[in-house]
Design a protein that fits this description.
single chain, mainly alpha, 14 helices, 81% helix
Length: 336
């Protein structure tokens, strides 16, 4: 029976695709609002209010995609869920504490008096930094096959820094899109400074992945695979060049191109994601457990798929609706 005729084959692949899509959307959307928090120390007090206003209508919807991704991992790939979260227990705990701290600070800084507001601003920054660093650490350890050695811990620490820089970069491009005037010009400067961290981060992940596993090395450098994969790094290089040129042009070009850096960055993140997906398929736990071995029974997956058909459009619709309603430049965020 062909792959699409056997539920034990196409159902795990379908849920792997849904989980991957959820992770990609989360990294792009919650990535920018985490990045906005990471940039807080470089902004003035009035600029912080405008930066918060730029993410205020969206951050709840953005985090929904993380919940969806972890939920799919739990119900569709329970064996992998146990292995991954066991290996990443500590950084996951740090991430959750950071997300909680961000959420509390987000609400309280708008209601606090002038004397308490700087403390809540610092809490928002610390929560954003904790979440970003922990996610980068998890990414690095995952690429290393969830093995814990001095080398893998060191690599995970490097990816933690690079992912945080990448989040701050996409956060800066979001501020370019949603703000104007002096804050927009400052965000252009932040993005110019952060683009090199994005390049180094993509380079580190790209160099490490094929050397961690002979299987990935063969997928990258065998013929004809090397020719099929070649467009990805070429396109990524083109996107980085386009970003660099756009960021140089923005202060002189007015607001017409303010949407372009964020769009290019999302496209760059998407290319990087597909490169990783290509490299690690069919493993959901690198070199240990394939998505077919770890998947729930086809009967269970089919029932879950029926529920997903109703739930996923609602989540996507809510997200899209929020971005349509609150399109345009950010205005003052008020709670009265």
């Amino acid at each position: 029976m062909d792959m699409f005729g056997d539920p034990a084959q196409w159902l795990p692949l379908t849920f792997a695709g849904l989980m991957g899509l959820s992770i990609l959307i989360y990294v792009c959307l919650d990535g920018y609002d985490l990045g906005v928090g990471v940039l807080f120390p470089f902004a003035e007090e009035d600029e912080k209010d405008r930066m918060i206003a730029s993410i205020g209508p969206f951050w709840d919807a953005n985090e929904t995609w993380l919940v969806l991704a972890i939920g799919i991992l739990l119900v569709a790939f329970p064996a992998a869920h146990g292995m991954i979260l066991t290996a990443l227990y500590l950084p996951v705990a740090v991430m959750l504490v950071g997300l909680i701290l961000r959420g509390v600070a987000f609400e309280f800084r708008a209601k606090a008096g002038a004397a308490q507001k700087p403390a809540w601003n610092m809490a928002f920054y610390i929560g954003s930094l904790m979440s970003s660093l922990s996610q980068g650490f998890m990414l690095g350890l995952y690429i290393m096959g969830l093995k814990v050695t001095a080398f893998t811990i060191g690599f995970a620490a490097i990816t933690a820094v690079f992912l945080t820089v990448a989040y701050s970069f996409i956060g800066a491009t979001w501020v370019i899109l949603k703000a104007g005037g002096a804050l927009q010009r400052k965000a252009v400067t932040w993005a110019r400074q952060g683009i090199w961290g994005v390049v180094l981060g993509l380079g580190a992940v790209s160099l490490a992945s094929p050397f961690v596993s002979p299987r990935i090395f063969d997928k990258w450098f065998s013929v004809p695979e090397i020719f099929l994969l070649a467009p990805l790094p070429i396109m990524a290089g083109g996107l980085v060049l386009a970003l660099w040129v756009t960021l140089r042009a923005l202060p002189r070009s007015g607001d017409e191109l303010s949407w372009l850096p964020f769009t290019l960055t999302v496209t760059l993140f998407t290319l990087g994601f597909f490169g990783m997906a290509y490299s690690f398929y069919p493993y959901v736990v690198p070199e240990q457990l394939t998505l077919y071995e770890s998947a729930s029974a086809p009967e269970s997956l089919f029932i879950i798929l029926v529920g997903t058909v109703f739930v996923l459009p609602m989540i996507a619709g809510y997200t899209v609706l929020s971005y349509i309603i609150f399109r345009g430049k950010a205005t003052e965020l008020r709670y009265d």
